[in-house]
């Protein structure tokens, strides 16, 4: 697999389209950090890290609106790929849907959202957009 982050986002996207409640993905430290951000920002209901074998898995409980059955995540878009990396400085931070969505940035101080990176005045690699 050449792009594990794209695989992670695709698994989430496919589970949302199939209206699954829980999806399992192979774990890595970067995927764990992205999952924590999605939970903190309210895009997923819950998550659990399972340490089985050398790699482990992440169980992600997806969040749905009980009345309309609509998912909290409308779009997951991979920005920086292994073939074309996208970097940004803190002055040119991307705005996702005019500030309603989030951009997940990998910085020298860890993985964080675009707003957190702007406050700390650090740039980094733009991993994905979520809204």
Find the count of extended strands (DSSP E, 2+ residues): 8
The whole-angstrom Rg is 15 Å
Which regions contain 5 or more consecutive residues with pLDDT less than 50? none
Provide the succession of SSEs: HEHEEEEEEHE
- Gross morphology: globular
Kindly name the structural category. Answer: alpha+beta
Query: What is the terminal-to-terminal distance?
Result: 26 Å
Number of helices: 3
Task: Let me know the average pLDDT.
Answer: 96
Helix percent reads 25-40%
Largest sheet: 5 strands, antiparallel
β-strand percent reads: 25-35%
List the helices and strands and how they pair.
Elements: H1 4-17, E1 22-26, H2 29-40, E2 44-50, E3 57-62, E4 76-78, E5 87-88, E6 102-107, E7 110-113, H3 114-120, E8 124-130
Tell me what the structure shows:
Helices cover 25% and strands 31% of the residues. The chain contains 3 helices and 8 strands. It has helices at 4-17, 29-40, 114-120; strands at 22-26, 44-50, 57-62, 76-78, 87-88, 102-107, 110-113, 124-130. The longest helix is centred in the N-terminal third of the chain and has 14 residues, at 4-17. It is globular, with a radius of gyration of 15 Å. The chain starts with a helix and ends with a strand.
Brief descriptors of the model:
3 helices, 131 residues, alpha+beta, five-stranded antiparallel β-sheet, three-stranded antiparallel β-sheet, single chain
């Amino acid at each position: 697999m050449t792009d594990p982050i794209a695989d992670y986002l695709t698994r989430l996207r496919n589970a949302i389209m199939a209206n699954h409640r829980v999806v399992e993905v192979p774990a890595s430290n970067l995927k764990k950090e992205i999952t924590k951000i999605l939970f903190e920002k309210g895009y997923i209901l819950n998550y659990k890290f399972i340490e089985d074998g050398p790699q482990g898995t992440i169980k992600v409980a997806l969040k749905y609106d009980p009345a309309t059955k609509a998912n909290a995540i409308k779009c997951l878009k991979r920005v920086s790929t292994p073939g074309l990396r996208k970097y940004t400085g803190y002055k040119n931070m991307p705005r996702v849907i005019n500030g309603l969505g989030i951009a997940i940035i990998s910085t020298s101080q860890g993985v964080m959202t675009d707003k957190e990176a702007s406050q700390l005045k650090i740039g980094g690699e733009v991993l994905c957009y979520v809204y």
